[in-house]
Amino acid sequence: MSYGPPTPPTDIPTDLVNTLNESTSERLRHIARYAEELAEYKERETRLEEESDEDEIRERPDDLPDDVPSKATITIKEINDNRYYYWQWREGDQIKSKYKGPVNSNE
């Protein structure tokens, strides 16, 4: 272990290096924990986006509208004692739906 200060990576902005150099050891430990958690979060988000892109590549059902992703599933909603099919999928924290048609009473 060296007794001199570490050399910062060349791709870190100078103002960030200066801020870190002016920080206490305790604050630097908090920053290090935060940076590690943030890196893990961003890696997870990137991985989920890549998986989502792969899901989009899957073969689409014949009756799936162009504006509905292939990961959508069919759900049945009851409205005023009538039953209807809807395509349903998740976009981030939201659940999206698109009308498909009435449920046939013979099914």
TrEMBL record:
InterPro entries attached to this UniProt entry: DUF6788
UniProt superkingdom: Archaea
Domain named DUF6788: residues: 45-104
Keywords (A to Z) from UniProt: Plasmid
Annotated spans, Disordered: 42-70
Name the UniProt record assigns to this protein: DUF6788 domain-containing protein
Lineage, top ranks: Archaea, Methanobacteriati, Methanobacteriota, Stenosarchaea group, Halobacteria
